[in-house]
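Problem 12. The chain below contains 726 residues. Write out its predicted structure in token notation.
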Amino acid sequence: MSNIPETGRTPRVRIRLVIIQVLVFSLLLTLGGRLWYLQVRNGDEYADEANGNHVQRVVDPAVRGSILDARGVPLADNQTRLVVSASRTELMKMDDDGDAVLTRLAGVLGMTPKEVGNKVRLCNDETPQPCWNGSPYQPIPITDEATPRQALQIRERAEEFPGITAEPTAVRRYAAPGGAQTSQVLGYLSPVTDEEIKAAENTSSPFLRSDQVGRSGLERTYDKYLRGKAGVTSYEVDKLGRVMGKTQADPGTPGSNVVTSIDARVQRVAEYELNEAMKAARLETDKITGRKYEADSGAVVVMESKTGRIVSMASNPDYDPNAWVGGISGKDYAKLTSKKSNYPLLNRAIQGQAPPGSIFKVVSASAAVRGGHPFDGRYNCSSSYSLGNRSFANFESKGYGPISLGRALEVSCNTVFYALGHSEWKKDGGNNPKKNPNDWFYKTARDFGLGKETGIDLPNEVSGRIPDRQWKKDFWKANKDAWCKQGKKNGDYAEKIAFENCLEGNRLKAGDSVNYAIGQGDILVTPIQMAAVYSAISNGGTLYDPTVGKAVVSPDGKQVEEIKPKSHGKLPVDDKTIADLNKALAGVATNGTAAWRFGGWPHDKIPMHAKTGTAQVYGKQTTGWLATYTDDYTIVMTISQGGTGSGSAGPAVRKIYDAIYGLDAKGNQNLKKALLPKPQAKLPKIQQDGSIDAPEVKPYQPSQEEPPTEQELAAGLSAPAPWRRD
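Solution.
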């Protein structure tokens, strides 16, 4: 009989099984304890470490597209500079965090170690500028002005400069061809903000941390086209910033080019002549104040009459947009935004507001016709117009007797328009207006496009102001308390006005309508608005949205998206009235207030039309306006506190036309010297490699006019003073 148990297990086998069980349970207990240690006791610590292993994107910024003039001349492009950059990731791997390398680099670049160190430190709430607010995995630029010698030193001694690169890089450049700054039209760039990145993350044109974004002008309007698409390479990195591998690479594409309707040659002439006109005005004495004219600012717009395209737009004071390249200094920024410098960042062509004076009379004449007053009727041009106990004088208190509206425009007779404005106010009920008054003078101004933006493709355009009945009510409501506090019945002029406004500032009074009819009082317009008005009269009645951009062209020139002219309405008058206005404005240039500035002009070959204006603002010297047009171009110029329109702006506008058409002082034309006798039609050709065969722009050489003849002086066509009648 066998003594082996039925289980077949011997005592030795059972002992072995027990030992194995103990080992298994021990291992399980150890594993469980380790898991508890990792997941419970130190779980947060290891989770943080695991989260430190992540993917970082390194951005290779796209080359920004160029902004070109109508012939392909670069107004804003990119310049290759030697940029020295530091890899913070590489520096952080060193025992001293790269301090020794940065110190050696400072010696090569002629900077202090502190200056270089500040460049690579990361921005946060406690770190002042300068600092780096981009990705820490992005190469951080130390300077974009390295010399070839400095770059060569860094590259030849690479073992002394680990993590440092010196590479040619495209940097924005504002070329100023021929001296044409085109400052406010072009705008400038600055780094994108966190708020902008977040706002654009779900759009068709998201921002990257490294992006430079347009802040004003064309750089802002066409930013999404100019910016292109940056190249992005994704790296897997650990929490120490060490690169563990490349995961993905997306190549970038350069930005498109924006072709404008600006002609750099005309732009240079406009900038120069505007500045010269302001300098000349400052030499003249204001007979009212006894002081020299301040001529503190000005603007000029040159527009294609038939399309609304901008050929030139200048604003003074201006600035050099290159000041923003690479980051603007605090000193320069303070200068550009200070009252002392009179805010050169403002584009006064679209943001400068002032009463238009007599150039508004084309609107008033049209309103009178709409109100039933015939253009060829007879209206008394007396030396003054009485309204209650007040007398409104004609300019220089001159009268012409009964004249037509056309002649009233030619000689700029204020009293004719005073009477028309007063008459329409009385028809509408006077101080007790009808339920639905016609308000032809105010409605017509709005129908001419005033009191709202023109729609120009530049940012921050202002709307101006048409002070109609509703505006009076809203303005009174907003200012009533201040007026009532300041006003005194028997105080000084300002206190009396405040007292009057406190009591009845919400009412459209007779005096308001009388002043408004000649472009004075509370009305405000911008030069671009008046350019749109006069170009519409020139082209037969179409109000165009002014445009600077003409086309967007791909980097290789194959894709062209033309920006076609658009209209926002028609003038609210019939063809006969437009023809009457044309005839009257031609008379202004031949037999009216602008004739002395267009002596010798070839009216038979290039018909000239003009309207002068002088606006008065309480507490300031008079502001001059001159609005003109030919069949091809409309030019409007204004000089703040510069005297009369024909006096201050007349010579400059004449010289701009002379340069465009190639005319000498006596009206003889030389087409070889003409800058742009007809508007530019063709777009410039951009080659497949991105190159452009752009013509050279020579610096402007102003013509030296011959002295006037005795006959011209006798005719009063060349009088030098700015105090001739407007």
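Discussion. Residues 601 and 660 are 13 Å apart (CA to CA). Students who got a different answer should revisit the alignment rule from Section 12.3.
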